[in-house]
Amino acid sequence: MELREKVVVVTGGASGIGRALARRFAEEGARGVVVADLDGSGADAVAAEIGDAARAIACDASREDDVVATIELARQAFGPVDLFCANAGVAVGEDEQVADEVWDLAFAVNVRAHVIAARLLVPEWLERGQGHFLSTASAAGLLTQIGSAPYAVTKHAAVAFAEWLAVTYGDRGIGVSCLCPMGVDTPLLHGAGGPGGGSGSGGDATRASAVVKAAGDILSPEAVAGTVVDGLRDGHFLILPHPEVLTYFRQKGSDYDRWLAGMRRLQSHVSGID
User: Fewest C-beta atoms under 10 Å: which of 127, 166, 198, 232?
Assistant: First the structure.
């Protein structure tokens, strides 16, 4: 899809990839960009950077009432939503032992928020015969995340939901793309993993961050936003700012046991226990 004259909603838009997406979409000529974030003042700041073509709203993407209000703001200010970017995310928890509320938070923001947005928008998009859903998942959703079970599991689920949307509605005018980067220079990478704290506690959280930083180049959010614009224009489902992710994904599929053994070696190396 082309961004010119489109109406866009970006959740998690106050910082990182979300902020870069909102700014780049405006530069591409979007008619209007709604910057939605739990951090309402941060969303206000990004909208102010963009100017008249933007609006801001405090929004918990995992709460349906908040998403309804966000979509309605877009509609009133600019018109029906053409592109919804389910970009809000959290990186919380370590292993299977973390408390249920940590798992619940990860599923609420990384998965259920996507379901809520699609539930609200797909019927309208089917009537219009057009619309596009962009899911910010992660390379962890195609591979895994050493050091954080909740992140790995929920990002896999986000990819799976995006796949399902693409299969189910791809021939009915609805486009779907899934953004799966590795390391990006965002608050999430540096420990601001979720509301009220970082990506976990103790060695496993440090290990998760170390793995990401060691796996490949750390890209700027602006570079990722550029890749997203190109991917949307070319109609790609998988948008991979780090091209090597596709190589790793193919290796995983061609020999799962060998790939698992390699990931265990990487885990041992990063942990300093090999």
Answer: 127
Q: Which domain holds residue 144?
A: 7-243
> Residue 91 domain-assigned?
yes
Q: Which of 151, 169, 248, 256 is catalytic?
A: 151
Which residue matches tokens 């919380």?
Answer: 92
- pLDDT bin (cut points 50, 70, 90) of residue 189 is low
The closest alpha carbon to 47, from 71, 13, 88, belongs to: 13
Q: What is the pTM of this model?
A: 0.91
- 26 located within any domain: yes
Write 118-121 long-range contacts (CB < 8 A, 24+). 118/161, 118/165, 119/64, 120/64, 120/67, 120/68, 120/71, 121/71, 121/81, 121/84
Q: Which of 90, 84, 117 is nearest to 106 (CA)?
A: 90
CB atoms within 10 A of CB 199: 27
What are the pLDDT digits (tens) for 27-61?
999 999 999 999 999 999 999 999 999 999 999 99
